[in-house]
Amino acid sequence: MESAKVIDIEKQGQIKARQKQMPKKKITWKLIKQQKLLIGMSIPFVIWLAIFAYTPLIGWIVAFQDYRPQNGFLGSDWVGFHHFRVLFNDSLFYTALRNTIGMGGLGLIFGTGTAISFALLLNELRFTRFKKMTQTISYLPHFVSWVVVANLVTTMLSNTGVVNNILQFLNFTDSPINFMARPDMFWGIVTAAEVWKSTGWNAIIYLAAMTSISQEMYEAAHVDGANRFQKMWHITLPSIKPIIIILMIMSIGNIINIGFERQMLLGNNIVADAAIVIEKYALDYGIGMFRYSFGTAIGIFKSVISIILIFTFNTIAKKTSDISIM
Q1: CATH number of the 84-321 domain
Q2: How far apart are CA 16 and CA 33, in angstroms?
Q3: pLDDT in tens, 18-57
Q4: How confident is the model at residue 6 (pLDDT cuts 50, 70, 90)?
Q5: What is the pTM of this model?
Q6: Where do you find CATH 1.10.3720.10 in the chain?
Q7: How many Cβ atoms sit within 10 Å of the Cβ of residue 79?
Q8: Which of 187, 204, 211, 185 is nearest to 108 (CA)?
Q9: Are 2 and 224 in contact (CB under 8 A)?
Q10: Residue 202: how many CA atoms within 13 Å on its side-chain side?
Q11: What span, in angstroms and rounded, lies between the C-alpha atoms of 324 and 273?
């Protein structure tokens, strides 16, 4: 086992040394000509990004106006940071923010953990047919609409659903538990549904990373008498560590952008306080009430928080592991 660790350490050291030795290429006309095909292929995507991602940012000026559609940008009155002050003085906003971060954080932790664990288990399967069948089946929930998933979850957790039937059969409870009317369980229900839906799909990239691991490391570990668990712990996981960190950094920025479909479909009036998230709050109290400026202020807040989260965790990852996305 020691030789496997030595090989792993040496490999990581060689990669870091190569990265430091590699000179940064300067952009020259010669380099542009050499890569003209790649540049040409990227142009349509750059144009798409400019039109649909950056051009709409002009609309952010609405957040600083008392915007009226009939008056347009030029005719609306400027109100400065009024809508932001209203936003930060609303207690419901902080409830939505808490729910968003809570459910987003749980989804990130359990979603990443289950995807990595599932990929590790699949990677250890030696029966090729069973492995392929399991992979295919695990991908299917990703393509199922949240409307269908919410209906399945609600049916399973109803008073006469399969979950309550099993709990009563095993004598864990004397009467059915009304899961969908328990605000304290709502975050867990949403997280479990999201994990079930996305685990197979999210495991794809980890499986792809595992295929690039050198077999020499496994052979050296086998000679040292390492079992499968030790190989996973000391070889597989350290080898895919860069992929895990990069995906975590990218996912952390989306904690606050978790959407509202699952909360709206699984929620009800009883669990409304636990179900409201930032995007649902923006829909109901911004666009839904024709408060376009207020809704835009919420959008700016989300974007700023996402950027802060990405840069913060990217800096932490860079200092602790020399791995970053920028």
Answers
A1: 1.10.3720.10
A2: 30
A3: 545 555 667 788 888 888 888 899 999 999 999 998 898 8
A4: very low
A5: 0.83
A6: 84-321
A7: 15
A8: 187
A9: yes
A10: 23
A11: 37
